[in-house]
Write a structure and sequence with these properties.
Elements (H helix, E strand, L loop, with lengths): L3 E4 L11 E6 L2 E6 L3 H18 L5 H13 L3 E5 L5 H13 L3 E4 L3 H13 L14 E5 L3 H4 L3 H4 L4 H4 E4 L4 H13 L7 H12 L2 E6 L8 H14 L4 E6 L6 H12 L5 E3 L4 E3 L6 H6 L5 E5 L7 H9 L2 E5 L9 E4 L9 E4 L5 E4 L10 H8 L7
Parallel strand pairs: 4-5, 4-12, 6-7, 6-8, 8-9, 12-13, 13-14
Antiparallel strand pairs: 1-2, 2-3, 5-10, 10-11, 15-16
Helix pairs in contact: 3-11, 3-14, 8-9, 8-10
Length: about 375
C-alpha cells in the first residue's frame, strides 16, 4: 500500500486544502474527504501520466510546430481557465511575439460580469465571511456537480437551506424579483412574490450564479447589479460567480495585470486591442479566421461544430491529458498540483499554492511556449 499524501486540490475553484490520498501501483487507491469531482480528477490525472509518457516530445516535433507558427499569419491562442499563473504569463509573452489574438475558452461574459460586480463592491467577501450569512440563493448553478464541497465551506446545507432559481428567462426572473420587493402591481407571479419576500426577510446573504445566467449579456448584467444594489439597501449581500473552471479568477486577474484587459485581446507590434464580442474564441474558429489555433489546456465547453473546425484546420493542443478529439498536434505538458507546482486563485480571489504529488519530467506549458518562441524576432 502506498504512502498517504496530504495535498491541495487543483480541480475546482474551491481548492480544498485538506485532501488525503493514497497512490499505489500508479493508480489512486484511496481518497478523502468525499468529493466525486476531486476523486475523478486525480484518478484521470494519475492515469494520464502513463499515457503522456508514450507521446514523445522530440526536437523534431517541436521544430515542426515552430515552422507552422512562422508560416501563420492569423494566430489564435485560446487559454483554458484551469491554467496556473505561470502558464498564463507565458501565453501572454508568446502572443505578443506572434501578434496573436489571445482569448479564453471560458465564455467571456462571466469574467466581465464578475469584474463589474467586484468594482461595485459585491465580490469583496471571502469564503470565511460567507459562513455567517443568513440566506443563499443559487441562480442557474448546481454546486453539487461543479463545487461539491461548497456547502461545507460556507456551513450551509444547500439542499435544504438555499433558494434555487432556474427559470427559462433569467432576465425576466430578476425583474420580477425586483418588482416583488416594491409592490408595484398585482400581476407579479406568486412564485416570485414569495421568493422575493423570503429573500427580503434575510439581513444578509450571498447569490451564487453561473454562465447560464449570463447568456443574455448586458441586460442581465445591468439588472443583476441593480437587484444586488436593492438588497444591500436593507442588508448585507454578496455575489459570487461559480465558474466550472478551476482558475477563472486567476486567469482574468493575470491578464488584467499584464495587459489592462480581460480575455479577448489582440496584440500588435506596439499596442494591444480589446474586443469582448468580436474576438470570442468559438466565433473566430467557426468563421475559419485562424490559420493556426493554439489551445493551451483543453476547452471545456466548445460545441461539436467548433471541434469539427479545429480538427479540419491546423490546431496545436498543449494539455496534460490525451484529447478525445483529433488535433493536428498534441504536446503533453505538466499539470500544476499533479507533477509540478503552480499558483492559482480560489473563487474569492485568495491565492493558492499547488504542490506536486508525483513529480515527473513533463515540460510545463510555459517552457514549451518559451521554446517555440525562442528562435528569431517576430512582431
Amino acid at each position: 500500500m502506498g504512502e498517504e499524501l496530504r495535498t491541495t486540490c487543483p480541480f475546482c475553484s474551491l481548492h480544498c486544502t485538506d485532501l488525503r490520498l493514497t497512490i499505489d501501483g500508479g493508480r489512486l487507491a484511496d481518497f478523502s474527504p468525499p468529493c466525486e469531482k476531486g476523486q475523478m480528477g486525480y484518478a484521470n490525472a494519475i492515469s494520464g501520466l502513463s499515457a503522456s509518457r508514450k507521446q514523445s516530445q522530440t526536437r523534431t516535433a517541436l521544430q515542426a510546430v515552430r515552422l507552422s507558427l512562422e508560416a501563420a499569419s492569423r494566430l489564435l491562442v485560446v487559454l483554458s481557465a484551469d491554467l496556473d499563473r505561470e502558464a498564463v504569463e507565458g501565453a501572454i509573452r508568446f502572443s505578443k511575439k506572434f501578434s496573436a489574438i489571445l482569448t479564453c475558452a471560458e465564455e467571456y461574459t462571466g469574467s466581465m460580469f464578475a469584474l463589474a460586480m467586484k468594482t461595485a463592491g459585491f465580490l469583496t467577501g471571502t469564503l470565511g465571511e460567507l459562513r455567517n450569512l443568513e440566506q443563499v440563493v443559487l441562480c442557474g448553478v448546481e454546486p453539487g456537480q461543479s463545487h461539491p464541497r461548497l456547502g461545507e465551506m460556507i456551513q450551509k446545507n444547500l439542499l435544504s437551506q438555499a433558494i434555487f432559481l432556474d427559470p427559462p428567462d433569467p432576465l425576466e426572473a430578476i425583474r420580477w424579483l425586483r418588482l416583488g420587493n416594491e409592490e408595484r402591481g398585482e400581476n407579479i407571479p406568486d412564485f416570485y412574490t414569495d421568493i422575493a419576500a423570503q429573500i427580503q426577510k434575510a439581513t444578509s446573504g450571498v447569490v451564487f450564479f453561473g454562465p447560464k445566467w449570463l447568456e443574455a449579456g448586458l441586460p442581465v448584467t445591468t439588472e443583476f447589479l441593480l437587484w444586488l444594489n436593492d438588497l444591500n439597501r436593507t442588508g448585507r449581500w454578496y455575489a459570487q460567480y461559480l465558474s466550472l473552471a478551476s482558475n477563472n479568477t486567476g486567469v482574468v486577474e493575470t491578464l488584467l495585470f499584464a495587459t489592462g484587459f480581460p480575455p479577448n485581446v489582440r496584440f500588435k507590434a506596439k499596442s494591444v486591442g480589446y474586443s469582448p464580442r468580436r474576438w470570442q474564441a468559438e466565433r473566430l474558429i467557426q468563421m475559419d479566421w485562424p490559420d493556426l489555433c493554439l489551445l493551451i489546456g483543453r476547452p471545456r465547453h466548445f460545441s461539436e461544430q467548433t471541434f469539427a473546425r479545429l480538427e479540419k484546420n491546423r490546431t496545436i493542443l498543449l494539455d496534460p491529458l490525451a484529447p478525445s478529439w483529433r488535433p493536428h498536434d498534441w504536446l503533453p505538458v505538466a499539470q500544476a498540483g499533479i507533477d509540478v507546482s503552480g499558483q492559482v486563485q480560489r473563487l474569492d480571489g485568495v491565492p493558492i499554492a499547488l504542490q506536486p504529488i508525483m513529480p515527473m519530467e513533463r515540460p510545463t506549458a510555459n517552457a514549451i511556449l518559451a521554446d517555440l518562441a525562442s528562435e528569431g524576432p517576430r512582431v
